[in-house]
Structures are given as structure tokens and as C-alpha cells.
UniProtKB/TrEMBL annotation:
RapZ-like N-terminal domain: residues covered: 1-154
Entry keywords, A to Z: ATP-binding, GTP-binding, Nucleotide-binding
Native species: Parazoarcus communis SWub3 = DSM 12120
Domain (RapZ C-terminal) ranges: 161-277
Annotated protein name in UniProt: RNase adapter RapZ
Residues that, per the record, bind ATP: G8, L9, S10, G11, S12, G13, K14, S15
Gene3D superfamilies in the cross-refs: P-loop containing nucleotide triphosphate hydrolases (3.40.50.300)
Keyword Translocase: no
Pfam families from the UniProt entry: PapZ_C, RapZ-like_N
Alphabetical list of InterPro entries matching this protein: P-loop_NTPase, RapZ-like, RapZ-like_N, RapZ_C
Residues bound to GTP: D57, V58, R59, S60
An annotated Gene Ontology molecular function: GTP binding
Length: 290
């Protein structure tokens, strides 16, 4: 039996994640009190359900405090337990609530939207590090859908999943990063008019960067650091380790290095690679083309 738990901040994209799982054939339960999780799993398992997705968040009130213990209990019962925690920056959440005119679940008389967001962040702090965190700030909904699909399609097995994620510093450091490497000191293909519209996955950019000795040294230094410390993270019983590689715009250098590193670690762990800023650029271009 596979169970995917969804939690996170209101406005961070939980409804999108739940819809992805529902479309993928999961039996979905939204807004379940954490204390009822064992009974739900037992009932559905007895009824023959194999894939279940459950949303547990601050709407459940104080029962959210029981979630860490419930997760520990379930790991000894189910074959495959995964946990996604969605979050976003305060300014992003405020903008989303303002656009949709929805009421924050912790909003009450005399409490501003910003205060409600801070209260929710504090209430969920104890569970935010229990699973795979995804920072949806400035993320296009289609990108989040793709990332959730990648998450549920990743091979199960209880080991650590190593995530290499490129990003652009001009958009901010991703909140879900465990390790951050700054590669802005490397020569930038952006200044070559031929390479500017391309990304670090395109062969002309790859060839440009491969000719620069500093790029090779930087790549090898990051590889060596991650390789040296990966066993320690595995012993820490982590399910996910996100290594973020940042350049100015997140289009060339960081994308190239994230892809290069992902190839080097295939076989050492379950590996995923994501391109935060490049995906944002592609989504914006697709929207403008319509």
C-alpha cells in the first residue's frame, strides 16, 4: 500500500497537488485530522485500496501536533509512505490570497492576513521537515504539477532521494534547499548573443562551459563535497536531500551543473533534477505565446 501525505501552508498549492494525485488514480481524503490517520489507513487497507493520498494541515486544528508520531507508526505498517510539504514566501502567499479573495483559515477579527500566515507557519514548523519540501514561490501551477508527478513516480524503496535543483539568485534562494552552492563567479553564457536564449541543457551552452577550466573545477568540488557527506545524510534517516545550484538567472550555469551532478550520482542514490527558474521562464514564454 502506498500513502502520500500532503501538508503545507494555505495558498502554497495543496489543492493542485491533491488534484494531481486524484487524476493519477489515488483515493484522496482532504482535511483529515491527524489523529484519525491510523483508522483511515486500516479501513482503506482492509478494503483493498493500494494508493491513498491524504491532506493534513492546519485546518485540522490542534490534532496536527499528532502527525509526527502517526508517521512513525505508519512507517512500520505500510510499504511506501511519502510526505510532501508545500510552502512559499510570505509575499507570494499574500498576493495569492489577495488575487483569489479567499479567507485564510486562521484569519479572525483583529488578525491581519500577514499575522495569520505567520501563525500558520509557526503551527506547522514541527512537521515541515518531516518529508519532501517544495517551495512554490513564483512557481507556475504546471511546474508544480510536474514536480508532484515526478515525486510520486520516483522509485520507492526507503532510501534517500537526491535532488539537484537549479535556480536564479535574482528570484531568491529556494526555501526547500538543504545545501546551496553559488556558481555566479563562473563565466556567464548570457553575454554571448547566440547562447542567451538557450539553457544549460542545450549542446552549444554545454560546449561553451566545458571549455572553461573553472567550470570543471567547480563541478568537481561540488561533486566531491556531496559525495563525502552523502553517507552522513543517509545515516540521518533523511528521505530527501535537495542540493540547490544557483547562478544569476538560473538558465545556463546552474542548469548545466545540476544536470552534470545528477549524471554523476546516478547509482549512488535515487536522483531527481529540477530547474526552478528555467521552468518559470518556459512557462512564461508558453503563456505569452497563446
Amino acid at each position: 500500500m502506498q500513502i502520500v501525505l500532503i501538508s503545507g501552508l494555505s495558498g502554497s498549492g495543496k489543492s493542485i497537488a491533491i488534484k494531481v494525485l486524484e487524476d493519477a488514480g489515488y483515493f484522496v481524503v482532504d482535511n483529515l485530522p491527524a489523529t484519525l490517520l491510523p483508522q483511515l489507513v486500516a479501513t482503506l487497507h482492509g478494503s483493498g485500496y493500494q494508493r491513498v493520498a491524504v491532506a493534513v494541515d492546519v485546518r485540522s486544528g490542534s490534532s496536527i501536533a499528532a502527525l509526527p508520531q502517526q508517521l512513525d507508526n505508519l512507517r512500520g505498517i505500510v510499504d511506501d509512505l511519502r510526505f510532501i510539504f508545500l510552502e512559499a514566501r510570505d509575499d507570494t502567499l499574500i498576493a495569492r490570497f489577495s488575487e483569489t479573495r479567499r479567507r485564510h483559515p486562521l484569519a479572525e477579527e483583529g488578525v491581519s492576513l500577514e499575522e495569520a500566515i505567520h501563525r500558520e507557519r509557526d503551527a506547522l514548523d514541527a512537521i515541515s521537515g518531516l518529508g519532501h519540501r517544495i517551495d512554490t514561490s513564483d512557481m507556475h501551477p504546471n511546474t508544480l504539477r510536474t514536480w508532484v508527478k515526478d515525486f510520486i513516480q520516483a522509485e520507492a524503496g526507503g532510501g534517500l532521494t537526491l535532488m539537484f535543483q537549479s535556480f536564479g539568485f535574482k528570484y531568491g534562494i529556494p526555501m526547500d534547499a538543504d545545501l546551496v552552492f553559488d556558481v555566479r563567479c563562473l563565466p556567464n553564457p548570457h553575454y554571448d548573443p547566440r547562447l542567451r536564449p538557450l539553457t544549460g541543457r542545450d549542446q552549444p551552452v554545454i560546449e561553451f562551459l566545458e571549455k572553461i577550466p573553472e567550470v570543471g573545477r567547480m563541478a568537481e568540488d561540488i561533486r566531491r563535497f556531496v559525495a563525502n557527506w552523502l553517507p552522513s545524510y543517509m545515516r540521518d534517516n533523511r528521505s530527501y536531500l535537495t542540493v540547490a545550484i544557483g547562478c544569476t538567472g538560473g538558465q545556463h550555469r546552474s542548469v548545466y551543473l545540476a544536470e552534470w551532478l545528477a549524471q554523476r550520482f546516478q547509482g549512488s542514490a535515487q536522483v531527481l533534477v529540477r530547474h526552478r527558474s528555467a521552468a518559470r521562464r518556459d512557462a512564461d514564454r508558453a503563456a505569452h505565446a497563446k
